[in-house]
Amino acid sequence: MHPSAQFRPADRAMAEALMEEVGFGMIFAATPDGPRVAHTPLLWTGDGAVQFHLARGNALTRHIAGATVLAVVNGPDAYVSPRWYESSEQVPTWNYVSVEMEGRVRRMDDEGLTGLLEGLSARNEARVSQGEVWTMDKVSPGHLAKLKAAIVGFELEVLAWRPTFKLSQNKPADERERVALGLESEGSRAMAQLMRDLVG
């Protein structure tokens, strides 16, 4: 989380929307073997929890049940060149969107894991524009059981949200627009759009 309060939105709905839109993130935890991170799809339950699964052999899997961990979701990011400002007395920076969620983890049972997998596939299959929607019933029960045995489901009860939406809020409106135009010219349209939509 950025230390400057001007980059931390008070509206938690923005953080939830980012998590739902991106749907993928990192789980960080301290383990007896040192700090570890896992990259995984994330499913927001809508009631204060984030669900995810890890490979059974992942370095975090045997350590995080009952532990406090950090989940991080990153949105768009972009380099901001000083040449886009009116004044030459500027330095490079980076605009970015990120949400940190801290909380305690519990291990899910088989029924919970099945619900997680169904939720993840339903959400992401809805985003695929071509072909027939895939569902888990397309896999034979025996093979599906074998695949599920290779992963472990977890649920993180979010106790602390720490969002950062660094979108040039520390600059005047005309300077922000110059930056947005510069970002668009370099192909960072998503960041430019966020700057206009969320900051003005």
Question: In a few lines, what is going on in this structure?
Answer:
InterPro entries: Split_barrel_FMN-bd, TR_PAI2-type. This is FMN-binding negative transcriptional regulator. The chain is of the alpha+beta class.
What does this structure look like?
It comes from Novosphingobium clariflavum. This is FMN-binding negative transcriptional regulator. InterPro entries: Split_barrel_FMN-bd, TR_PAI2-type. Helix content is 30%, strand content 34%. The chain has helices at 12-22, 110-125, 141-148, 173-185, 189-199, and strands spanning 24-31, 34-41, 43-44, 49-55, 68-80, 93-107, 151-166. The protein has a single domain (5-170), classed as Electron Transport, Fmn-binding Protein, Chain A (Pnp Oxidase, Chain A), CATH 2.30.110.10. Helix 4 runs antiparallel to helix 5. Strand 3 and strand 4 (49-55) form a beta hairpin. The mean pLDDT is 93. It has a seven-stranded antiparallel sheet with strand order 2-1-5-6-7-4-3. It has 200 residues and is an alpha+beta fold.
Report the oligomer.
single chain
What is the 3D form? elongated
Round the mean pLDDT to the nearest integer and report it: 93
Indicate the low-confidence ranges by residue numbers.
none
Which homologous superfamily in CATH is the superfamily? Electron Transport, Fmn-binding Protein, Chain A
CATH architecture: Roll
Structural class: alpha+beta
Any idea of the CATH topology? Pnp Oxidase, Chain A
Order of helices and strands: HEEEEEEHHEHH
Largest sheet properties? 7 strands, antiparallel
- For the record, the CATH class is Mainly Beta
**Share in β-strands:** 25-35%
What is the count of distinct domains? 1
